[in-house]
Design a protein that fits this description.
Number of strands: 7
Largest sheet: 7 strands, mixed
CATH topology: Rossmann fold
CATH architecture: 3-Layer(aba) Sandwich
Number of domains: 1
Strand content: 25-35%
Distance between the termini: 48 Å
Shape: globular
CATH class: Alpha Beta
Order of helices and strands: HHEHEHEEHEHEEH
Amino acid sequence: MSLGAEYFRGVYECEADPFMLNSKWYERRKYALTMASLPKAQYRRALEPGCSIGVLTEQIAARCEHVVSTDVVRSALDSARSRIGDTAAVEFALWSLSDDWSALPEPGMLFDLIVISEVGYYLDTADLTSAMTRAVEHLEVGGTLVATHWRHDVDDYPLTGDRVHEVIAATKGLALLSRYLDQDVRIEVFVASDGPAVSVASSDGLDVR
């Protein structure tokens, strides 16, 4: 069964940064790897479900014209707003991947970047499968979907990080572009395409013969 908002409200009741996103080198390194894996220097519109206190949001915003960042805990969104400051470039919303996509601030908006970072394993297989289908529907052709997840087992979570990536990889309309893997984290970049993904060098006009 997918974890609901009540679970996360309980997590944030005791700590403003319960996942230590702002203090651990592991987290800073993971974010650096995630951002370095993006195949484009700049994006127009990004969606970041589960933004928590906005540490990754800040980095995404530096490479995007507009970011929609969401969470299911109001206190987390408040922390993220305080971190980012008053800017029209980042829009925050109370929303999760398992919610109706029509409830997003601008229903029907297409994104050229969707960031699924440490949120996929909060859903069960059925909900994640549905969410990824909807994600592809809201991703521009040629757009980027990056997935980053902890690989170790967590008793509370319905899925493992590796299982999350298996579900995403099986989603119709996504082609794998790149993968980073170590004992702790798995980072994969997918492109919205019905055919093979085109390498970054090829997209940049370099001769890859």
